[in-house]
Amino acid sequence: MPEILPSDLWGRSAYRMLGNRAPWTKKIRPDALAKAKNRCELCGAKEERLICHDKWTYDDTNAIATLSGFEIHCGNCDLVTHLGRMVQVSNDPESIVLAAVIHLNNVNGCKTLASTSIIKEAYSLWEKRNKKKWKVCVAPELVSSYPELEVLPKFIPDAPYPPPTQMTGEADILKFVSSGNPTETMNAAWIVATNKGRTKKATGRTGKWLLFVAEKSVDNTWQNLKKAVEAGKLWKEAKVSTALFTRDRSYVICVYTYDHDDAKDVARIREYLREMGFKRPITYKTDDQTSSGVYSDATGGIAKYRS
Q1: Among 58, 77, 132, 193, which has the minimal tally of Cβ within 10 Å of its Cβ?
Q2: What is the CATH code for 175-306?
């Protein structure tokens, strides 16, 4: 279950307060690993890199959040738990959400619709909790075991996370809209452009060129590219990330092709993008990679094509 913290708790963690000092490295984390028998406490996975997660309990009536213990997570379970933050800082929020859905499916034995509902419920709960002013406490038994945690309620992170307007609870993280400017859209994760005319039929091997565009130019760039899609100059679909989920004021535009194995068509789309002004090297990612939760980045480390 994703645990999207109220903004009053963002950055308030034992690790951020203690860093790599002895109370964390020699006491809290080793104790948690020993208790978990060096396995993820949510799915049972045994990995080389396990994560020690702060476990919070909430008194919703009195708006009191209590650090009640620590829990060991594998990488996938930690991604699901911190989905709100992971989506917020990612250049590829679609892959993050899909990876979370796939892991929820595998762990809970449920279908995608049920996993998506779980994620939506977490965002809805975050929205309700974030309207309150929360008091932070540490469970007495935890302070007894680790006295250094007593000052956590007074700890203020040096670099607090961005304000909660970046993660509006009213928005559907899987929602698409068909109009608007990327920098002004906060009610959906993506804006989609489509060509409803006759185009090549998708083969099941679709993929996309990834364009990373600065905030100052993304609105004009998107409108020009949208017109090209609608006019049939590209394939039938492209999409752009919105202000809901951005990182370092960089937006991603996905320009789709019907078959990633049709190298000639992939090159044709790339050449048209070059004519539109995208002359710098860009990368191509298959939808198989996206649906498998393989993340992309601006360096194109997992790209099928680079041009």
Answers
A1: 132
A2: 3.30.760.10
Tokens for 200, please give them: 């090549």
Where are the extended beta strands (E) located within 243-295?
250-257, 283-286
305-306 β-sheet, strand order: 172-177, 188-194, 237-241, 250-257, 207-214, 283-286, 305-306
2 vs 169: CA distance, rounded Å: 13
pLDDT in tens, 223-251: 999 999 999 999 889 999 887 655 556 78
Cross-strand pairs, 54: 70
The dihedral formed by the CA atoms of 229, 231, 233 and 235, expressed in degrees to the nearest 10 = 40
The pLDDT-based confidence of 291 (bands split at 50, 70, 90) is low
Tally of CA atoms within 13 A in the half-sphere of 76 that contains its CB = 21
Instruction: Please indicate whether residue 195 or residue 31 has the higher confidence score (pLDDT).
Output: 31
The predicted pLDDT at position 29 comes to 92
Confirm if 206 and 260 have CB atoms less than 8 A apart: yes
Report the SS3 class of residue 258. coil
Segments making up each domain of the chain, as ranges: 7-156, 175-306
Residue-averaged pLDDT of the chain: 82
Question: What pLDDT sits at residue 160?
Answer: 47
Residue 283 burial by CB count (10 A; 0-12/13-18/19+): exposed, middle or buried?
buried
